[in-house]
Structures are given as structure tokens and as C-alpha cells.
Amino acid sequence: MSTLLSVLLGIGLSAACGFRIFVPFLVVGIAARTGHVTLGPAFGWMSSTPALIALGVATLVEIGAYYVPWLDHVLDVLATPASVVAGMIMTASVVTGLDPMMKWTLALIAGGGIAGTVQALTVGARKLSLVTTGGLANPVVSTIELAGSLVLTVLAIALPFLAFAALAWLIFLGVRFLLRTMRELSGRAA
Asked: Which of the residues 24, 154, 168, 178 has the least number of beta carbons within 10 Å of its own beta carbon?
């Protein structure tokens, strides 16, 4: 059961990396430091004081940069591959009870895949905001993404099963909403 919980924790945290890359790392580092999360031996650095300071600064810079109108689009280009890597690392850092080959395969497929999927949805939402509001709603999108990252990170740590269920529901609704909106927009253009 603890292996299943660590896998669900990893998937939830990886999804949070799709919203914001550094928020989950900072929260997990703090949670590991306070004993709420057990990190794999190779990932103990995440709870060290220098890492927490660096992650705190990186988190603040990332949050602030997404509120700058042109910079948010540049960050999306950089954040898409970075979120996949972050999702892989996040999953590998918390999954316990599996041999290394299985853990890294899971990290690659589930962790990287779910982070990339969530990141793709956020990029789609930002593009939709740009098309429909000229980018005026991008700060609202940024705030929702930040809240999503923070809430999903905390939920994954506290209640991994619920975080996984919420994630599945959010991805379903997000994909449905984006596809419907894109169809409506292309119908108006035709």
C-alpha cells in the first residue's frame, strides 16, 4: 500500500509541476524537512537549507515572471520541456518500494507524461486567453495556475488518492473545455 501511495504522490506532484515548476519542489522540500514526506536517498538535497533558499528564490521569480505579459509566453516555451523533466524528477524523488529500473520507468512515463499534459493544457489556456482577450486575462490564468500548483501539491502530500482523482477530473474537464472552445472559435472564423 505504501508503494501505491508513493506512486500517487509522485503523479500528483508531477502534475503540479505542469502548472508551476518550482512550487512543488519548494513545498516538498519543506514537507521533507518537517517530516511529512520521505524522499528517496538521492533526493535528500531537496530539504537542505541551501536548496530551500534556492527553490524559494526560483519560485518567487517564476511566479512574478508569469505576470509579465510578453514574458509569460517566453516562459511557456521554456517551461514545457522543463516541466516534463521536473515531473520525472519529482516522481522519482518520492516513489519508494520499487526497484530503480521500475521507478525511473514510472517517473519517465507517468511523471513526465502527466507534467507535460498539464503544461500543454496551461499553454492552451494561455493561448486561448491571448486570442479571446488580447492577453488581458493572462494574469487571471497565471493566478489560477499558481493556485492549481499549490493546491495540487498540498493535496498530493495530504491525500494522494483524492489528488489523483481530482487530477483525472481536471484533465478531463480541461481537455473538453479547450476542444469545445477551439471548435467554437474555428466555427466563427469560417
From this structure: 168
CA pseudo-torsion sign 177, 179, 184, 189: positive
Backbone angles phi, psi at 55, to 5 degrees: -65, -35
Give the global pTM.
0.89
Tens digits of residue pLDDT in 157-189: 999 999 999 999 988 998 898 888 888 878 776
Place of cell 533526493: 43
For 81-124, the pLDDT digits (tens) are: 999 999 999 999 999 889 999 999 999 999 999 999 999 988 88
Cβ pair 94, 28 in contact under 8 A: yes
Which residue type occupies 52? L
The full set of domain ranges for the chain reads: 2-189
